[in-house]
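Deviation from plan, reported transparently: flavin-adenine dinucleotide complex.
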Amino acid sequence: MDLNDTPEQARYREQVRSWLDEHKAQAPPASGASDDSSYIDARRAWQRQLAEGGLAGITWPKDFGGQGLGPIEQVIANQEIAEARVPGILDVIGIGMLGPCLIAHGTDEQKTRHLGPMLHGDEVWCQLFSEPAAGSDLAAVQTRARRDGDGWALSGQKVWTTNAQFAAFGLLLARTDADVPKHKGLTMFIVPMDAPGVTIRGLRQISGEAEFNEVFFDDVKLSDDMVVGGVGNGWGTALTVLMYERLTIGLGSSGMGYRSDRFAAAVAADPAAARDPDVRRRLGDLSAELLAIRFTSYRTLTALQNGQIPGPEAGLAKVTTVNAAIAAGELIADVVGPDALAEDSEWAYMISFLPGLKSAGGTESILRNTIGERVLGLPPEPRLDKGIPFSELRAKEKEAATA
Ligand SMILES: Cc1cc2nc3c(=O)[nH]c(=O)nc-3n(C[C@H](O)[C@H](O)[C@H](O)COP(=O)(O)OP(=O)(O)OC[C@H]3O[C@@H](n4cnc5c(N)ncnc54)[C@H](O)[C@@H]3O)c2cc1C
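Because the crystal trials were delayed, the predicted structure below was used instead.
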């Protein structure tokens, strides 16, 4: 494929660049604490500006306030935003993953009510999927929604919920029927985060921030029109979110600043380190990995541009990018020394955040398993849960463990 911009893409890039030149002075700093409400307010206001400038919801259909453009334009905008050293949208999870799910599965009323405020940063959303005993095995969720008059009553716990501390709504996967196999008894709900019975507790990370949370639900009342995609169809609805999660991580990686030229510049600042053969070998190894990923992602982009959905092989991009960036963080920490972790260091956040990214959006082992089974055709892992009602699973697992 031709890796240069087409004339239309070059025009689009120019249009994005000149909008950013004109407005970047009004942008808040590219990073700040996600538990600092004045920083979050500034990011909301910036997202509103980006939305008005056509730089939020780039791939959303025009009918829902988006630009109706393709993934290449999304990547071009991400690259230019990174180049301008301004933050992108605040609600990456809402706009990248949950909005597209509402567009695909929501009712007309849900789309009309929620998509506009989401796009403009007025109402941020969070993804209420993971639980203490349901992460990689997401279909094992135990948060229960039971029929309560015309509506539902929700009880249970979620964990790792990014942005819940300032979200207005969450998209939540709950079990509505425990008497059918685990993938079949699930339903997706919209949950107002200020509803009575919702408790949000921040989880502080090594970086010092509390970016994600535990969220508890104690008999939270939900009306029937909060169901997204139909009762019992929660697994299919969740798969739509997970597919967009993979795309959001893939398309966003060029804007994350994990670039070998940036790492090489940090090494070159110390001439003795730059001459050290071991440092040079480590830099060469990780740069080769990042270069390979760049070319692999061009293949993914070509598939997307042709209307195809990238397959499970796309998970390799996440595994490789994260591992190469972790290797870069370790190299920089060795070269710069403890100052790399100082509060004002440009590397501190990257070094402390990256190990978490190994789990987010699918862990490395799970992605490798999926690639092994579905790309390389290796035999699947043995499964105990096929065709067994969720309510009987624990007993069957115990039986298998003692057999
Ligand atoms: C930064 C960050 C942000 C996140 N944000 C959100 C969010 O907003 N909303 C949300 O719902 N969730 C969120 N998550 C949770 C994320 O989706 C989970 O961490 C992920 O699904 C893994 O689940 P787990 O942490 O429960 O690990 P587990 O599933 O318990 O896995 C633990 C370890 O066991 C390994 N393992 C598990 N099963 C297998 C297997 N079958 N074969 C081989 N190895 C296996 C895993 O690879 C891992 O190393 C976030 C996580 C992080 C780190």
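The mean pLDDT is 92. We consider this an acceptable substitute for the interim report.
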